[in-house]
TrEMBL record, chain A:
Keyword set, alphabetical order: GTP-binding, Lipoprotein, Membrane, Nucleotide-binding, Prenylation, Protein transport, Transport
Protein name: Ras-related protein RABF2b
PROSITE patterns assigned to the protein according to its UniProt record, in alphabetical order: RAB, RAS, RHO
The UniProt record lists the keyword Lyase: no
SUPFAM superfamilies to which the protein is assigned, alphabetical: P-loop containing nucleoside triphosphate hydrolases
GO terms, molecular function: GTP binding; GTPase activity
Subcellular location(s) per record: Endomembrane system
An annotated GO cellular component: cytoplasm
Source organism of this protein record: Zea mays
Region spans: Disordered: 184-204
One matching Pfam family: Ras
Family: Belongs to the small GTPase superfamily. Rab family.
Primary localisation category: membrane
TrEMBL record, chain B:
Primary residence: cytoplasm
MF terms (GO), sorted A to Z: GDP-dissociation inhibitor activity; GTPase activator activity
Region (Disordered): 1-22
Annotated function: Substrate-binding subunit of the Rab geranylgeranyltransferase (GGTase) complex. Binds unprenylated Rab proteins.
Annotated protein name in UniProt: Rab escort protein 1
Cellular component per GO, a single term: Rab-protein geranylgeranyltransferase complex
Protein source organism: Zea mays
Family according to the record: Belongs to the Rab GDI family.
Biological process (GO), any one: intracellular protein transport
Pfam short name (any one): GDI
Length: 204, 557
């Protein structure tokens, strides 16, 4: 649903993170949303969602970012995680070749689960650790091109390219101008509706 | 990021745990407060409650999807799911002799039986989602809804209204259920006398509910005369309705379509399942408070957009956010007991790995050879429910997407001692393609053959067989002046499901999907199970929902 704020149109978009445990998914989000980096963060616990608004030219994208809550560790993400995602960031660790191999499997899983319109970014994280690199940028870039993804190397630690990934996704979203899902259902919320007053005069 | 937290996703690991012959991961750590096997709704709610209480949780499921017996599965998988064999999965690793554990094999119960399918399943099969718990809804004011809100699971699930309301099958016709004073006023099928009686009854009940909640609030405004007498509250509800002068059809509306009684309340046979006035009014109160609770929900009931399997997924995610570890595709093949066989101390995974825990919780499809001492009730008459699923060509009520139909006892045949419920769902939910509808039916039964017969008669009453070419079956819909053509039955499946209750004790076994329309009974059992292991902990306290980590002050959750 589009909301109007000061003449700008706000586009809501669900964005999901994918990738191995330890690749730095949550660190990327914390850097993007909070500007923070925690050196020895344990596996993702405690936060299910993040929200961040991004201005692109005259338009605004409000990302609702879903983190895996650790369910990716034993490949146990639920279908609801993927459902309705406008964008996904598949994160791997450039110092860990195995994480790149599994990132490819996440891409396949995403293509099997999600809709074909999902914008997919491939993020090679920990780009500050060049000395221990195991995955070349060229290899990842080639894979991304073959599979219709866009690719960036990032560092949540040094903030390199972190905002750029989200900004690029936002631009692609606005270019696509996808129709919002008309089939969307209602989400429960705590706020009592105005009808509550009138309903008290009714009975069943 | 530290590598310390890294682990292989779904890949075999040496890790000193012995050789692994296939692709099962090794679980790290190997000791938890709670281990749960199976991801049905009760297990998932318990996982969320335990994790919210600060317990360490491992939650596994042998299937590649969440939900166990509460799943939403694709049409193409239904037959294999219902015919799952009871053979135990054999561990692929020779079990090392435990010095101090006694190993108790875990077997699968046969839950479903007497599966009968007719018609050709339409293509594409993957576009149809079948709910194993159907027919099932959430009341808008249900505890399930409150649990979703408290736990934060509501953020993960979308709903649609059962906006077509309820219909009563009576003497071969479908009548709208007048479930509120406004509905009574608008109804065109009721006689004026019937309207007055029903209106007066609802007014009385509403006054009682208001007085009861007022006195519960301790604001005692002297509304005592408005309350129903205590002796009336303990009467069978049917007797109270007779005292209020409700004729048979109106009694059927109140008893079966609003109070949701299952068993015949008006029979000559001595029935143990008479609901009291108190019980009936409790359900009417829930029904009443559900109307209008959510601004964007129309009517009393809501349904998960992608099927009931979404609810276990939502609670599992809540548990994961609090630190629970999730492993699908991981059968548990045996349980571990201490030497004296007094306590369960863990579970053996199919990979051969032993996991230790303080508390073991299993889904109801599992059983052990030790079940007899714990499940005394199971060795006697098991409760059963007959369920049906249909794919049909159009709505049973013109212009409505999602509709509930109630067949009171004896409305289909003389032998019908239980109500049959039918829930029709449309493609405004993501359960079938446009132009088709799903219908779920159920009736509890002690006599399976009578139960199946009633389900089939309900199907025949509403739908035409596909093969009818020239002849057109007609169904009188009382709210319309012209006769309506029956929807065509494209495909159907009827099966019998066993029902076991949850059991506390050394081993916690969760309740099966029951015969009821909602989850109150199941969640009540689940709550008791939680209290039996963590008596001092609050069950999913308010504000156990995760903080919406949000940098945008404008955003509302």
């Amino acid at each position: 649903m589009a909301a109007t704020a000061g003449g700008n149109k706000i586009r809501n978009a669900k964005l999901v993170l994918l990738g191995d445990v330890g690749a730095g998914k949550s660190s990327l989000v914390l850097r993007f949303v909070k500007g923070q980096f925690v050196e020895f963060q344990e596996s993702t616990i405690g936060a299910a969602f993040f929200s961040q608004t991004l201005a692109v030219n005259d338009e605004t994208v409000k990302f609702e970012i879903w983190d895996t809550a650790g369910q990716e560790r034993y490949h146990s993400l639920a279908p609801m995680y993927y459902r309705g995602a406008a964008a996904a960031i598949v994160v791997y660790d450039i110092t860990n070749a195995a994480s790149f191999t599994r990132a490819k499997k996440w891409v396949q899983e995403l293509q099997a689960q999600g809709n074909s319109n999902t914008i997919v970014a491939l993020a090679g994280n920990k780009a500050d650790l060049l000395d221990t690199r195991q995955v070349s940028a060229d290899e990842a870039k080639a894979y991304a091109q073959e599979n219709g993804l866009f690719f960036m190397e990032t560092s949540a630690k040094t903030a390199t390219n972190v905002n750029d990934v989200f900004y690029e996704i936002a631009k692609k979203l606005l270019q696509g101008q996808q129709v919002q899902n008309p089939q969307g259902g209602m989400v429960l919320n705590q706020r009592p509706p105005e009808r509550m007053v009138s309903s008290s005069s009714c009975c069943a | 990021m530290a590598e310390a937290g890294a682990d292989s996703s779904n890949a075999a690991v040496d890790g000193g745990g012995g050789s692994v012959q296939n692709d099962y991961p090794t679980i790290d750590p190997t000791s938890f407060d709670v281990v749960l096997c199976g991801t049905g709704l009760p297990e998932s709610v318990l996982a969320a409650a335990c994790a919210a209480a600060g317990k360490t949780v491992l939650h596994v499921d042998p299937s590649p999807f969440y939900g166990s017996l509460y799943s939403s599965i694709q049409l193409s998988s239904l037959a294999s799911f219902l015919s799952r064999e009871a053979t135990p999965p054999t561990s692929t690793v020779a079990a090392a002799a435990s010095d101090w554990h006694t190993v108790v094999d875990l077997h699968r119960r046969i839950v479903y039986s007497e599966v009968e399918t007719s018609g050709a399943a339409p293509e594409p099969a993957r576009r149809f989602t079948i709910d194993l718990v159907g027919p099932r809804v959430l009341y808008c004011a249900d505890e399930a809804v409150d649990l979703l809100l408290r736990s934060g699971g509501s953020h993960h699930v979308e709903f649609k209204s059962v906006e077509g309301g309820s219909l009563l099958y009576w003497e071969g016709c479908l009548y709208p259920v007048p479930d509120s004073r406004q509905a009574i006023f608008k109804d065109t099928t009721l006689k004026l006398k019937e309207k007055n009686i029903l209106f007066r009854f609802f007014k009385l009940v509403q006054a009682h509910i208001a007085a009861a909640s007022a006195s519960a609030d301790e604001t005692g405004q002297g509304d005592a005369p408005a309350r129903i007498l205590e002796e009336d509250l303990d009467l069978p509800f049917v007797e109270f309705l007779k005292k209020q002068g409700l004729p048979p059809k109106m009694r059927a509306v109140v008893l079966y379509a609003i109070a949701m009684a299952d068993y015949n309340q008006d029979g000559a046979d001595p029935c143990e399942k008479l609901i009291t006035t108190r019980e009936g009014i409790d359900t009417i109160a829930l029904y009443s408070s559900s109307i209008g609770r959510f601004a964007n929900a129309e009517g009393t009931f809501i349904y998960p957009m992608y099927g009931h399997g979404e609810l276990p997924q939502a609670f599992c995610r809540c548990a994961a956010v609090k630190g629970a570890i999730y492993v699908l595709r991981m059968p548990v093949v045996a349980l571990l007991m201490d030497e004296e066989k007094k306590h369960f101390v863990g579970a053996r995974l199919v990979s051969g790995q032993d996991i230790l825990c303080q508390q073991l919780i299993i889904d109801p499809s599992y059983k052990t050879i030790l079940d007899v001492p714990f499940d005394g009730s199971d060795s006697h008459f098991p409760r059963k429910v007959v369920r049906g699923v249909c794919i049909i060509s159009k709505s049973v009520k013109q212009g409505s997407s999602n509709v509930l139909v109630i067949f009171p006892p004896k409305s289909l045949e003389e032998q019908q001692v239980t109500a049959v419920r039918l829930l029709q769902l449309s493609s405004n939910l993501a359960v079938c393609p446009p132009g088709m509808f799903m219908s779920y039916l159920s009736t509890p039964c002690t006599d399976v053959s009578v139960g199946k017969q009633c389900i089939k008669k309900a199907i025949d009453a509403l739908y035409s067989p596909q093969a009818s070419d020239g002849s057109e079956d007609h169904l009188e819909t009382a709210s319309e002046s012209t006769e309506d053509v029956k929807p065509t039955l494209i495909w159907s499946c009827v099966y019998v499901q066993e029902i076991t209750q949850g059991t506390a004790g050394p081993l916690l076994s969760c309740p099966m999907p029951d015969e009821y329309l909602d989850y109150r009974n199941i969640l009540g059992s689940t709550k008791k199970l939680f209290a039996s292991i963590y008596a001092d902990e609050e069950f999913l306290p308010k504000k156990s929902a995760p903080v919406y980590a949000n940098d945008d002050s404008d955003s509302a959750e």
